[in-house]
Design goal:
By secondary structure, this protein is an all-alpha fold. The protein folds into two domains: 30 residues, no CATH class; 29 residues. It is built from three helices and no strands. It starts with 11 loop residues before the first helix and ends with a helix.
């Protein structure tokens, strides 16, 4: 069975856990979304973010009568 785990590597405990897991390279693998190209659910690209922000701003300004 494969488990997906999220560990906050900005905390001392998270760093400690990651260092411990790295010792078991035969059974533990790390997947980097930058390398695999698999984007976690809920993430958007910079372009998608900008497009959404522009649409929302345009809608808000139109509702307020500023455009």
């Amino acid at each position: 069975m494969i488990h997906t785990v999220r560990i906050d590597d900005k905390t001392p405990t998270g760093k400690k856990i990651l260092n411990e897991l790295r010792k078991y390279s035969k059974v533990v693998t790390f997947e980097d979304p930058n390398v695999t190209g698999v984007i976690p659910e809920g993430y958007v690209t910079g372009e998608e973010f900008r497009k959404t922000v522009k649409e929302n701003l345009r809608k808000k300004f139109t509702e307020d009568g500023n455009i």
